[in-house]
Write a structure and sequence with these properties.
With 79 residues, the chain is an alpha+beta fold. The chain is built from one helix and two strands; from the N terminus they run ββα. A two-stranded antiparallel ribbon has the order 1-2. A hairpin with a 7-residue loop joins β1 and β2. The chain is flat.
């Protein structure tokens, strides 16, 4: 699906769909979005009978983003 979201737009994306968000240079304002996922990925260290390796949630993703900003020399306060 390709489209342009406008203020107040609601978009539903089924599980497994890929997406790319683009904010055009002529956008009059920055984008503000709320993402709601009904999942929390849990990663195991082996495919069968694996032990817990990691998980993702809002806090872990924010920490990964902060780390990326720092390593790229970007201002973390921009988050």
């Amino acid at each position: 699906m390709t489209g342009i979201a406008k203020p107040g737009t609601y978009i539903y994306e089924p599980a497994g769909e890929a997406h790319t968000l683009v904010i055009t240079e002529d956008s009059p304002e920055p984008m503000v979005a709320v993402f709601r996922g009904c999942w929390r990925p849990i990663y195991l260290d082996k495919a069968v009978d694996g032990g817990f390796a990691a998980y993702e949630d809002g806090f872990s993703l924010l920490e990964l983003t902060r780390k990326y900003y720092c390593e790229a020399g970007m201002d973390v306060r921009q988050l």
